[in-house]
């Protein structure tokens, strides 16, 4: 069976979407779903192509037991809409920028990541790049909750067994 493919998207692909990528990857491992679902991440801008996640993102991830060291930034491409089943955007600008390059017939579902964390009264993952370390702590709180919600959603919709 073809894997279910999930793509996390932000602006630079060095802060929010790599954090979402690393957390979701860890959840797949914890639940034994790495052979069923796979995750990647990308940015709507190409400023940081090839770069590792921001050191503050790596540090906050490490402090919670996630490893982002293997991740490298790339740009979101129209072809991603053919390759992925779910494209999750961190904020409204990401959503609009992604929608703007969606090719006709692109099959991916384009969704807002925080729709999967209804316990938070926020609809966008705030960009932490120009702020302090506390911003990365908050991003991680949001991302952990949304990753759990997204996994639950995919399991329900695809009738995947829980483990
Ligand atoms: P991200 O954060 O979209 O969460 O990766 C940003 C990273 C870099 C820039 C902006 C946001 N930048 O302007 O370089």
How does this structure look, described?
The protein is an alpha/beta fold and 163 residues long. It has one domain: Rossmann fold, CATH 3.40.50.2300. The protein has five helices and four strands. It has helices at residues 16-30, 55-63, 80-83, 92-101, 133-158, and strands at 4-10, 37-43, 86-89, 109-112. The chain has a four-stranded parallel sheet, sandwiched between helices. Helix 1 (16-30) crosses helix 5 and helix 2 packs across helix 5 (133-158). Bound molecules: 4-nitrophenyl phosphate. 4-nitrophenyl phosphate binds at residues 10-16, 43, 47, 127, 129.
Blueprint of the fold:
Layout: E1 4-10, H1 16-30, E2 37-43, H2 55-63, H3 80-83, E3 86-89, H4 92-101, E4 109-112, H5 133-158
Parallel strand pairs: 1-2, 1-3, 3-4
Helix pairs in contact: 1-5, 2-5
4-nitrophenyl phosphate (4NP) binds next to loops.
Radius of gyration from the alpha-carbon trace, in angstroms: 15 Å
CATH class: Alpha Beta
Uncertain runs: none
Hetero ligands: 4-nitrophenyl phosphate
Q: Tell me about the biggest sheet? A: 4 strands, parallel
Order of helices and strands: EHEHHEHEH
What is the CATH homologous superfamily assignment? Response regulator
Characteristic key phrases:
single chain; 163 residues; alpha/beta; Rossmann fold; 4-stranded parallel sheet; 5 helices; 4 strands; 13% strand; globular; binds 4-nitrophenyl phosphate
Can you summarize this structure?
The chain has helices at 16-30, 55-63, 80-83, 92-101, 133-158, and strands at residues 4-10, 37-43, 86-89, 109-112. With 163 residues, it is α/β, with parallel strands linked by helices. Helix 1 links the parallel strand 1 (4-10) and strand 2 (37-43).
């Amino acid at each position: 069976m073809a894997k279910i493919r999930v793509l996390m998207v932000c602006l630079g692909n060095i802060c929010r979407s790599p954090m979402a990528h690393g957390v979701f990857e860890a959840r797949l491992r914890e639940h034994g779903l790495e052979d069923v679902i796979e995750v990647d991440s990308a940015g709507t801008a190409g400023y940081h192509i090839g770069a590792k996640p921001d050191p503050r993102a790596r540090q906050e991830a490490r402090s919670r037991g996630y490893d982002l060291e293997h991740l490298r930034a790339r740009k979101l491409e129209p072809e991603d809409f053919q390759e992925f089943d779910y494209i999750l955007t961190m904020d409204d600008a990401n959503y609009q920028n992604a929608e703007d390059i969606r090719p006709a017939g692109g099959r991916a579902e384009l969704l807002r990541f925080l729709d999967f964390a209804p316990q938070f009264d926020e609809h966008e993952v705030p960009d932490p790049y120009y702020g302090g370390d506390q911003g990365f702590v908050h991003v991680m709180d949001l991302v952990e909750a949304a990753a759990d919600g997204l996994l639950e959603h995919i399991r329900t919709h695809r009738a995947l067994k829980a483990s």
